[in-house]
Design goal:
about 75% helix, mainly alpha, Growth Hormone, Chain: A, 18 helices
């Protein structure tokens, strides 16, 4: 733990982690808040699904696009513009009496304008600490983001039920704007300039470690989304037990990130961490008993934040600095698609085969997420004893003959 305290004492690290977590906190609230709001307004879960689907599609498209724009226009201009559009769109969605099609269209715009704070902060980190501290910092970041998924749904549900659904969504906007301003005004953003990439959009995916991270991130998040659907179906929407089990799942990730974050990243690192997730989720299929699910998902969670830390580390070490933001944008897009597809397949399975089938779907996704890096370990860089900072951008220098 001493390494994490040392990290947090590094100038700017605690501030930038706090700012980006605050700015991203609304995305742990909005899905549930919009689900409750739209279902109450239109008496239709299908309508809520359409709006949330449009929001997710917009976010998936935006990932690499807005990240790449930061190299052309700068981080602050891109984040300020997207923050203003996103916050305004979400506000309009709850204050105007719009039909479903209107909510879908504005929801898509809100998703498309999601501020690229996650790619920005992962690009900044290598410039804030030395190479030995970068792996623990990625792990600390992956662990800390569990706060978003533990507290976000709780805050959204409490405010929506105790006050109103509109108040719950507007509170998310307050977090978005407040955290965004905090992040934008952080001096670290002014000290880091992302060089403009000379490559075409998407070329960075030709880097095997980036493609590997995108695919495994897809599998990992699809597994987590399927688990969430299965747990909710097992206990019912009216039971608090599902919330407790999912909170324990997230706590496992937090503990795992802090416990394993200092470990070196070798060729088997990703497969090994995904194996923990696979074993835990596979054991969870045996019984839907509260304590059994809590214990097995606690074990599964131990591998999640460490797996994310490896994903971020191998991307950082495998691309030029000008490509890091776009690379992280693609990784984020893979995760968003994984969340949507995992939820959809799990929902179909629940309707036809029951709650246990969703956990089986999750185990399948996790197993693929373990098998793929095991088979593709030659594309997984060995970072033991290596600097995992992005490669510097260089260009030919003309030399005049003497």
């Amino acid at each position: 733990m001493s390494s994490y305290w040392t990290l947090l004492k590094t100038p700017g690290v605690a501030r930038i982690i706090g700012a980006q977590l605050t700015a991203r906190f609304p995305f742990g609230m909005l899905s549930l808040a919009f689900l409750i709001h739209i279902e109450r307004t239109f008496d239709s879960y299908a309508a809520a699904g359409l709006v949330l689907g449009a929001l997710s599609i917009g976010q998936a498209i935006a990932g690499p696009l807005t990240s790449r724009l930061m190299g052309r226009w700068g981080m602050r201009p891109v984040i300020i513009t997207t923050l203003a559009v996103c916050a305004s769109s979400i506000t309009l969605m709850v204050l105007l009496p719009l039909p479903i099609i209107g909510l879908v269209l504005i929801g898509f715009v809100a998703g498309l304008a999601t501020p690229p704070i996650q790619p920005a902060v992962r690009t900044i980190y290598p410039k804030m600490v030395n190479s030995r501290q970068l792996t623990p910092l990625f792990s600390l970041d992956a662990s800390a983001q569990e706060i978003i998924w533990v507290l976000g749904p709780v805050v959204a549900t409490f405010v929506a039920i105790q006050v109103s659904t509109v108040a719950g969504i507007l509170l998310a906007v307050v977090f978005l704007v407040g955290g965004g301003i905090w992040f934008i005004t952080s001096p670290e953003l002014g000290r880091v300039r992302i060089p403009r990439s000379r490559r075409k959009l998407g070329v960075v995916l030709r880097r095997p470690p980036v493609l590997l991270s995108t695919i495994v991130g897809f599998m990992l998040v699809a597994a987590a989304a399927s688990v969430e659907a299965g747990v909710v179906a097992a206990f019912g929407h009216g039971s608090a037990d599902s919330g407790f089990v999912l909170a324990i799942f997230a706590v496992g990730s937090l503990v795992g990130g802090l416990a394993l974050g200092h470990m070196p990243i070798g060729p088997w690192a990703l497969a090994g961490r995904m194996l923990i997730v696979t074993v835990g989720i596979s054991l969870a299929t045996i019984s839907l008993n509260f304590w059994w699910l809590a214990g097995t998902l606690l074990l599964a969670g131990v591998g999640i934040a460490p797996a994310f830390a490896v994903l971020f580390g191998i991307v950082s070490a495998s691309v030029k600095f000008s490509d890091t933001a776009e690379a992280y944008g693609w990784v984020g897009t893979g995760q968003l698609i994984g969340a949507a597809l995992g939820s959809a397949i799990a929902g179909f399975s629940i309707d036809h085969y029951g709650a246990t089938s969703a956990i089986l779907v999750a185990a399948g996704f996790a197993a693929l997420g373990c098998l793929i890096p095991a088979l593709g370990r030659r594309w997984h860089p060995d970072l033991r004893g290596r600097d995992i900072s992005p490669m510097p951008d260089t260009e030919p220098i003309s030399i005049q003959p003497s």
